[in-house]
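Question (not urgent): is this output format expected?
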Amino acid sequence: MTQMAQIKKTMDEYQVDVPSEAKASFQDEMASPFQLSEKRIKGISRLEKITIGGIVLMCIVLAMTTIYMSTVVNKETESITNTQQEIERTTNSITKLQQEKSELSRKDRVKSIADKASLKQIEGNIRTVTK
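Got this back:
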């Protein structure tokens, strides 16, 4: 029970005679919140209303912008991560291919293949493979 309701109940129980000015003031205080807010709004100047509306609008726009920027940052972070993974896969592939090239072009391997095919070895014809 609110304090005002308790006062009214006490006044009714004891049948206290209250001056009419105090009753009017008491009834104003007991008015519904909607009525009180309506009175408060009427007391605010037009400039104050515009200022408050602008601040509220600015807060809403700021919140929406923050959410939008957060989404954009997350998308870009994901894109960067995907690009880094692709770079890593490509680097691994390049490393494997270089290793395979080195294994295939070893001098002793080439000589063993030539011997198996019964080819003559001429040292002048052997070249070093480079990029």
